[in-house]
Structure formats: structure tokens, C-alpha cells
Amino acid sequence: MNTTAGLVPPAPRRQRNARGQGSRLTEDIVTGALALIERSGSDEAVTLRAVAREVGIAAPSIYAHFADRDAIVMAVTLRVFDELAEEVQQGSASAGQDPVGRLVAGCEAYVSYGLAHPARYGVLFSGHHRPPEEYCAPVPLGPDSRPVLEFGAEAFALLVRGIEDCVEAGVSDSTDAVADSTAVWVALHGAVTLRTALPGYPWPEPGSFVRHLVLSLARITGPGPG
Questions:
Q1: What percent of the chain is predicted at pLDDT more than 70?
Q2: Cβ partners under 8 Å of residue 223, min gap 6
Q3: Measured between alpha carbons, how far is 185 from 201 in angstroms, rounded to an integer?
Q4: Rounded to two decimals, what is the model's pTM?
Q5: Do 33 and 46 meet the contact criterion of CB atoms below 8 Å apart?
Q6: Which residues contact 215 (CB under 8 A, 6 or more apart)?
Q7: Which residue in 35, 70, 129, 134 is deepest, having the highest Cβ count within 10 Å?
Q8: Which one, of 114, 113, 109, lies nearest residue 94 by Cα?
Q9: Burial category of 102 from C-beta neighbours within 10 Å (exposed 0-12, middle 13-18, buried 19 and up)
Q10: What 3-state DSSP class applies to 123?
Q11: Are 217 and 184 within 8 A, CB to CB?
Q12: Count of CB atoms within 10 A of residue 191's CB?
């Protein structure tokens, strides 16, 4: 039967999950929401009806897995942060044992991920999935006076560890790895967001630009990567 003109045809009905496969549907819901974000460029596209249509389920079925659309967006955020941390880890590992090379390569991987996946990267810092009072609340500090991040903690910890490794190797003058990691993070985030927002600007080549930022802000004194 032909679909009425102007109407979007319904998605194929999803087969019911077998017992014990509820977690699979949870992941499918997150994947569906992420697909909507990538196509539209914003998490505003994520609604319960849109996600249900994307996955091929009835909208009420989502409530067994997520309380509301904000919970779905939060799950997407966590997945993307995990992807970003994995990219940073792989980038660092590709540089071998040299601490400066590992630090720079991990930062280059961060920027590369953000530029290659602007919609995914954008959802990380949109703030739409949290109420204003929580979004503006001070970040708590741990017993070591380091910030305890609710999101992105692993990626930031990798950056701090990278600078600390350079200090231990005697190739960085940093006396506050957290403060210097924050400066590097600000620079990397700015590189991603500004390049994405102003693609027509005559930006320097990303690799050499990131290398220059990291070597300066991480207070590297020894030889950097070639």
C-alpha cells in the first residue's frame, strides 16, 4: 500500500527482545539518539517519538530503559566521552614511550576526533541535559584538591597524567599539572569549536598548531616530537 504523500512512512516494527536482552535495547536507543544528533547537528532532535521511530519501537517502550529524553541525551554524552577517551588513549599509545610524543599525540587525537565528529563533540558541552542549577554548580574537589568531573573525567585524567609523565621525565617545568592540563584543555576545546564554527578562517594545519599549543602550555622544555 502506498504511503500518503507528505507523510513519513513508519519504521519497521522491531522484533521483541528475548529475555535477558533488555540491555541491548538500551544500547539501541542510545545509538538511535546519536544517529538523530549526527543528522541534525543538535541534541534538540532527540525526542521520545523520534528515537522510537529511529529504533523501530513504540515510544512508551522507552520508559522501561530511560526516564525521559534528558536521560537519553545523558547516556549519549557518556558514550561519546568514552569514545573520546579511547581516541586519546590510542593516540598516545601510537607515539611509543616518549612522554612528550605521547602527550602531543593524545592531544592531536582529541582535536582530530572533535573535528571529524562535530555533532558528537557538540553534545558533550551543550548543557541541555542538566538543569541550570546543576550545570552552574561548582565542580567538587577530591582529597587531592583535584576537580572531580562528572563527565569527561577519564579524558582529563589522561591529560593530567601525560603532563605528569613529562615532569617525571625532566622535560616539563610544570609545577601544577592540573592547572596546566586545564590550560591545554581550554586550548584544545577552542581549537575544535572555533574551527567548526569558522571553517573559512585561514587556520594553521591542525597537527602543527596543536603541537605548538601543547608544548607551550604544558611547559615542555625537552625535545618535542618531530
A1: 77
A2: 100, 171
A3: 22
A4: 0.81
A5: yes
A6: 100, 104, 224
A7: 129
A8: 109
A9: buried
A10: helix
A11: yes
A12: 21
> In the block, which residue shows the cell 521520545?
48
Please give the Cα distance from 75 to 65 (Å, whole number): 11
Q: Which residue has the cell 500518503?
A: 4
Say which DSSP state 1 is in. Answer: -
Residue type at 8 in one-letter notation: V
Helices and strands in the chain: count of H runs, count of E runs: 9, 0
Q: How far apart are CA 109 and CA 91, in angstroms?
A: 5
Residue type, 184: V
What percentage of the chain's residues is helix, strand, coil (to nearest 5)?
60, 0, 35
Q: Is the pLDDT of residue 2 over 50?
A: no
CB neighbourhood size of 46 (10 A): 23
Cα distance between residue 60 and residue 40, in whole Å? 23
Looking at residue 145, its pLDDT comes to: 58
Lowest mean pLDDT among 25-29, 103-107, 132-136: 132-136
> DSSP for 127-166?
-TTS-HHHHTSPPPB-TTS-B--SSSHHHHHHHHHHHHHH
Distance, CA of 39 to CA of 130 (rounded, Å): 22
Task: Give the Å distances, CA to CA, from 164 to 49, 100, 141, 183, 191.
Answer: 47, 10, 19, 14, 23
Per-residue pLDDT tens for 49-103? 999 999 999 999 999 999 999 999 999 999 999 999 999 999 999 999 999 999 9
